[in-house]
Amino acid sequence: MGTPELISPRSPRVTAAKRLAKRSFRGKERRFIAEGPQAVREAVGHRGPDGQPTLIELFATVETAERYADIVEAAQQTGARVHLAGDDVLAEISQTITPQGIVGVCHFLDSPFEDILAAKPKLVAVLAHVRDPGNAGTVLRCADAAGADAVVLTDASVDLYNPKSVRASVGSHFHLPVAVGVPVEQAVAKLQAAGVRILAADGAGDNDLDDELDAGTMGGPTAWVFGNEAWGLPEETRALADAVVRVPIHGKAESLNLATAAAVCLYASARAQRVRNPA
What we know:
Layout: H1 12-18, H2 23-29, E1 31-35, H3 37-44, E2 55-60, H4 62-67, H5 69-78, E3 81-84, H6 87-94, E4 102-107, H7 113-118, E5 123-127, H8 133-146, E6 150-154, H9 163-169, E7 178-182, H10 184-193, E8 197-201, E9 207-208, H11 209-215, E10 222-226, H12 235-238, E11 243-246, H13 258-276
Parallel strand pairs: 2-3, 5-6, 5-10, 6-7, 8-10, 8-11, 9-11
Antiparallel strand pairs: 1-4, 2-4
């Protein structure tokens, strides 16, 4: 494939990649940045619905390119442009204090909500009013780890492709379907019409997660709705759910953060579904 040439910080390719830090440019070009060897490795192996490679370009320092020569070679084989770059270039593109030495420019990969419904999902995470990109990426990672079929980000939630969200997911962006910009009312109504039970996660919920598990009510298709980090779910969103469920606090902690609560809820549903429908 040949050895990539060192790219100048003033190159138009670097400028184009840098501006993807802004949501407006990401939306206009339908491209985003994936940073770090794990995320880039997943991007290299991912293809969109049309069968085309998701990775468009790869930037790596000489040292990182040597360390992850397999990633560089695989990227070249997909037809992606591969550039060697100095630390200054990687720092500008990634916009982190400690860049990981390798970033990829990728096509958007969100899925139409109707496609998710057509696949008859059994476990879905709905992020309603989630504004912190790190939390959004971490919940996406939790959903991936728990074996969820899809994630839905409502129109009131953070951008799926925010660099902090992509970093926090550690490659999970490439593992499961994600729909974006869906009004929460529409998401809930269509999931319910598809036979999916809607559970709103809220610390003040009337239903206790342990009681739900003991009652055997969680083995069917389920969508968990998670709210804002600071103020949870508004009353009008809770009212849409089939049940509002709290994670029990058995110790003295005041509460759980969003990602931790999401992990507990999603794993509880995943286990209940496996018990009801063993492989």
